[in-house]
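Subject: Sanity check before I submit

Could someone independently write out the structure tokens for this chain? I want to compare against mine line by line before I put it in a report. The sequence has 77 residues.
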Amino acid sequence: MSSVLCAESSNASQRSTQAQYPSAVPKRRIQSLFLALNGYRLTAGQVDVTQTMLAVAVGDLIEVEFSGWIRGSSKKR
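---
Independent answer below. Compare away.
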């Protein structure tokens, strides 16, 4: 497959994903929902949450560190 077709396919896939998961739903809400369903609430501030999610996205924060951050940034309801 040519690089042009690959790029077009990738762009179409990205548009499809964006349509399914609109950016209007903040990641913090998704995290909060997961925690709430398990009887917890997120106590970290927006800046801390954003910095942590960016670190996860670029691979600077591994799973063990992220789970520790969640434990330290959440509280039992």
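---
OP: Matches mine. For the report I'm noting this point. The two ends are 53 Å apart (CA to CA).
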